[in-house]
Amino acid sequence: MSFKFLNIDLSQLEFESCLGSGCYGGSVCLYRNRKDKRNRRIVVKSIPYNSPEYAYETVTKEHTILSQVNHPRILRYFGFFQTNDSWNMITEFAERGNLAEFLHRRKQQGAFLTQRVVMAKYRDMAEALQYLHQRKVIHRDLKPGNVLIDADNRLKLADFGIAKICTNVSLDEEMNMTIVGTPLFMAPEVASGKRYDYKSDVWPLGVIFYELCMLEHPFVERFLEGEESMERKKFSPPQIDCARHGFSRDMQSLCEMMIQVEPKQRWTLEKILKDDRVVGLMEREM
Ligand SMILES: Nc1ncnc2c1ncn2[C@@H]1O[C@H](COP(=O)(O)OP(=O)(O)O)[C@@H](O)[C@H]1O
Ligand SMILES: [Mg+2]
């Protein structure tokens, strides 16, 4: 068993807390490494051997992809180990939890974000996604729960269990038609079982961007009492209330580049990040 970046003696790991129950009966737990002088903590995502076959596919997929990427805005992966009853992946710890919890808290407090903060968060996610797309990886499950926040309030993309590496120049039709991901954040072509594309990651990025601006999902009413009580709104192009929040009108333009039902109308990330208005918004953010 070898670790690429860390030399961890498993007997020195001390359990601290459970961060989440991973899907398929797995768990995501926080450990302190007693041997580490800087007292850094690590996260172990475990999957029991008695999990269904497809659960293994997700962890092995996640392992394959995380082993190949190295970007400050993508959760850092340290390697895996096996125990008598589970398969385990070690990653860095994102101290401030996930973006879904962050958005929920801000909504409860009615604490809207400034344009500068929205753009800083947008930039983190866009840079991570652009890096992936350049390496022919589609994340396919972009949503606030899979975006983590570190101690410096920078975002890190996580959860690559259903990501897809497109090895062929033309995307693999059959694989790309599988319905995966989270319905609330799925691009329409994905939800209706049509073809996947890099642009299928741009739609959820747009939905998250809108949520950062308005603290609500563009197509669903969510009531604070419980996530079950959701009501799907009829689709209409989302409108960011720029005047109310003191945003530039270019924020609405950026939203419209991403939230387009027709994939042909939707921009690629590469084109978005080169657009003068977007460059302007990013510069003002700094
Ligand atoms: N490295 C980490 N640091 C902090 N929290 C994490 C970390 N990894 C996972 N989590 C928490 O656990 C949740 C589930 O992890 P995730 O990787 O998305 O697994 P799943 O495949 O079960 O969705 C995340 O939404 C986040 O709240
Ligand atoms: Mg997840």
TrEMBL record:
<dbReference type="InterPro" id="IPR000719">
    <property type="entry name" value="Prot_kinase_dom"/>
</dbReference>
<keyword id="KW-0808">Transferase</keyword>
<comment type="similarity">
    <text>Belongs to the protein kinase superfamily. NEK Ser/Thr protein kinase family. NIMA subfamily.</text>
</comment>
<dbReference type="Pfam" id="PF00069">
    <property type="entry name" value="Pkinase"/>
</dbReference>
<dbReference type="GO" id="GO:0006950">
    <property type="term" value="P:response to stress"/>
</dbReference>
<keyword id="KW-0418">Kinase</keyword>
<dbReference type="InterPro" id="IPR011009">
    <property type="entry name" value="Kinase-like_dom_sf"/>
</dbReference>
<keyword id="KW-0723">Serine/threonine-protein kinase</keyword>
<keyword id="KW-0547">Nucleotide-binding</keyword>
<dbReference type="GO" id="GO:0005524">
    <property type="term" value="F:ATP binding"/>
</dbReference>
<dbReference type="GO" id="GO:0004674">
    <property type="term" value="F:protein serine/threonine kinase activity"/>
</dbReference>
<dbReference type="InterPro" id="IPR008271">
    <property type="entry name" value="Ser/Thr_kinase_AS"/>
</dbReference>
<dbReference type="InterPro" id="IPR001245">
    <property type="entry name" value="Ser-Thr/Tyr_kinase_cat_dom"/>
</dbReference>
<feature type="domain" description="Protein kinase">
    <location>
        <begin position="13"/>
        <end position="278"/>
    </location>
</feature>
<protein>
    <recommendedName>
        <fullName>non-specific serine/threonine protein kinase</fullName>
        <ecNumber>2.7.11.1</ecNumber>
    </recommendedName>
</protein>
<dbReference type="InterPro" id="IPR051131">
    <property type="entry name" value="NEK_Ser/Thr_kinase_NIMA"/>
</dbReference>
<keyword id="KW-0067">ATP-binding</keyword>
